[in-house]
Amino acid sequence: MDLGIKGRTALVTAASRGIGRACALSLAAEGCNLAICARGDEELQKTAAEIRAQTGVQVLAHTADLSSLDDLQKLVAKTESTFGGIDILVAICGSPKRGSFDDITDEDLTNAFAATVLSLARLVRLVTPSMRAHKWGRVVTVQSRSVRETIPELFASNSTRPGAAGLMKNMSRELAADGVLFNTIVPGRIMTDRFLGGVESSKLGAEAYLKSKIGDVPVQRFGTPEDIAGVVTFLASEKAAYVNGAAIPVDGGVIRGI
């Protein structure tokens, strides 16, 4: 299936590994030129080289801290000067600190808001002028199951990620007439470093921890970054022209709500 995005430019954040890397590679396979960012340059450059070798597309690798407005401004300016604009934004942010209400300080909660909501708002503000000028754009953010239901020991995430989904829903109504569509991915239990980080906090061994987490996943397996990337790429495409303002679970059925 031709998704109709060959030659488009996609900016993918947190793209050196995990879900971000899988999304970047999937978009590149569809012929998108890429700008990718992460905080660490060495791993980012390695990912960029691998994507170039596998797909032949142009890849701009730019280090950026999503909590820094200056870094985001430079990232977007460099992308636009290199490719002439940005058509697709895939916004993936850092994860808020683990812990229950009693564990999370005011500073932790402020940092969580900055990571999940403020960084997204800044990116949207920076990239959408180009999209609106061209009357075409796709913004997809990958958030967390905590958008739809609270998760134990993730008070900061439970408190802030629904705000990111609310931002996306708001923008889906404000900019749809300009051809810019906004959608949120709600991932389930995906095998990433973040998910595996729960092993240490659980005080269980890795095998026992994973067994405890897979029992209520109806498809009886954990998700992969590629599971997320396939849906992200569809939402970024011409084929998803009537999908707007959605929060789509990619979770193997683990979310119990309708």
Biggest beta sheet attributes: 7 strands, parallel
Number of helices: 9
At the fourth CATH level, what is the homologous superfamily of the largest domain? Answer: NAD(P)-binding Rossmann-like Domain
Overall pLDDT: 95
Give me the side-by-side strand order of the main sheet: 3-2-1-4-5-6-7
Helix/sheet category: alpha/beta
Order of helices and strands: EHEHEHEHEHEHHHHE
Instruction: Give me the Rg, rounded.
Output: 18 Å
Q: Whole-Å distance between the termini?
A: 30 Å
The total beta strand count reads: 7
CATH topology of the largest domain, what is it called?
A: Rossmann fold
Structure description:
The protein is of the alpha/beta class and 258 residues long. It has two domains: 9-188 and 225-248, 3-Layer(aba) Sandwich (Rossmann fold); 193-222, no CATH class. Helices cover 47% and strands 15% of the residues. It contains nine helices and seven strands. It has helices at residues 18-29, 41-55, 69-83, 106-134, 155-174, 193-196, 198-202, 206-214, 225-235; strands at 9-12, 33-38, 59-63, 88-92, 137-142, 180-187, 247-250. It has a seven-stranded parallel beta sheet, with helices on both faces. The longest helix has 29 residues, at 106-134. The two termini are 30 Å apart. The model has no long low-confidence stretch (mean pLDDT 95).
